[in-house]
Design a protein that fits this description.
Largest sheet: 7 strands, parallel
Shape: globular
Number of strands: 9
Oligomer: single chain
CATH architecture: 3-Layer(aba) Sandwich
Number of domains: 1
Strand order of the largest sheet: 3-2-1-4-5-7-8
CATH class: Alpha Beta
Structural class: alpha/beta
Distance between the termini: 46 Å
Length: 330
Amino acid sequence: MSDCILVTGSTGHLGEALMRTLRAAGREVRGVDLVASPWTDVVASIVDRDAVERCMAGVTAVIHTATLHKPHVETHRRQDFVDTNITGTLNLLEAAAGAGVRAFLYTSTTSTFGDALVPPDDAPAAWITEDVVPAPKNIYGVTKVAAEDLCALAHRNQGLACLVLRTSRFFPDADDNPTARDSYADANLKTTEYLYRRVDIEDVVDAHLCGLERAPAIGFGRYIISATTPLVPEDAAELRRDAAAAVSRRVAGWQAGYAQLGWRMAPSLDRVYDNARARAELGWRPRHDFAAVLARALDSGDYRSPLARVIGSKGYHSDGDGIYPLRPVR
């Protein structure tokens, strides 16, 4: 039987990136999404169990990116999050196990850590590894953690090889914090985030491809997928007091680059995501770290990778500004 990869959420940001990359590599891939696009082969909902069963025919690996995201919290009912993020994932896991799929990758989020990400004002920056216990603070985080646990259950009870990839920020849309949006140029804000909480879409795709290969041997694991930080745990206290000083010890020449671009360093960083386990266990080699992204911005005027530029911004809503909606729904 030939290898066939099912990608859920194929019209979305990561879904399109995966579909583009897999098709370009000559891989057999099937995209499923609620929304039709050049990257979607089957228009269907993962909440529909029968549709999921049909999509799974002949599939040997699954990359499950379809989800309701944090920006949907204000526009969708909590039940919608349960239906899509939990029931949809359960449908896929059970169909995958029944089909004898060799690898199941679940795209989760560092938002699962929730309140664990923000230490008290007088505490050092939080150093976030996979050992930190999640403390989700909204329905999005709760349902993503629940779906992760369903993956663990499918591995324990049905022997399905499942890896959970907790991705940090990779979308190009404007920041969800209005103060941050007003205080920094968008490229300035996002480039700084590569120090502690952002990852390029090319590296996210590479992490998933590494996961596909490693999942059968690993069985089950949770991994932080974020740019490799130049910072170390010993920097945590200074990062809260004087981020520029801490960064200056680890990255040569960044000040001149920021000055040339008219940018500023954030005065304080509250957390750092550590991707060491993903690099060690998945064999993942992310290419887009803070220094590389800054160099690209200086060279071309655009901090984004070629793939990120091609995909661009998709938004989340048809009202408001497309990202942050005007009409909350409960």
